[in-house]
What does this fold into?
Amino acid sequence: MSHLLYYHPQSNFSRKIRILLTEKQINFELGKIDLRSKPEHFLKLSPIGKVPVFVDEDGTVIWDSSLIAEYLEEKYPEPSFCPKPFQERFACLKWEELADILGEHIINLWAQGLWNPGEETKYKSLLRQKIARLILVFEEQLSQTDYLLGGDTWSLADISALCSFGYYDLRLGENWRTAYPHIASWFNKLHQINSVQSTVPPSTP
Ligand SMILES: N[C@@H](CCC(=O)N[C@@H](CS)C(=O)NCC(=O)O)C(=O)O
It folds into this structure.
């Protein structure tokens, strides 16, 4: 049995794992899930019903991108994308979480747009505020360091964040680049990497 990743091509959380698997040089097959009509075999594997879901070659099933990332770091440690020392590890996981929450807010804002098109609801405006507040944290960090953890190479933190900003592009437009120049240049630099460039979410699924 080979590795299998259930995913959706527009999903930021799936992209995170596709990049990680590619960079760790783990061969994997992709199983595309129609999120509007999830197949029974997928729902049997994952009670959460969200992508990504990773199936290891021994049949182990892991859902949730953060858990999958942690699993991959443990089971396929080289090259590593999260430092091992306690403090640094948690710094990495905190940035990953911040990036994922940004991604979730963007998903929610986009979904609100589908449900209430043209209407600026209180919830939409709250989400916009939350998104703006989070983005500022990334801009501030990247005005001081080349990568989110401050070293000279990217990590899981950068992967999660670039997936959320890529998802922002897809769902809300590319207008953030002018207001956040440090994020923009970090984002452009990361797009020179093949696994990043080749997983840019397409506008049609
Ligand atoms: N915390 C989860 C979030 C996964 C998630 O929200 N996936 C979205 C696509 S990006 C999904 O499957 N949505 C379908 C649904 O909620 O029914 C993770 O990190 O994997």
Q: What stands out?
A: The chain has two domains: 3-75, 86-196. Residues 8, 11-13, 35, 49-52, 64-66, 100 surround glutathione (CB under 6 Å). Strands lie at 3-7, 28-32, 53-55, 61-63.
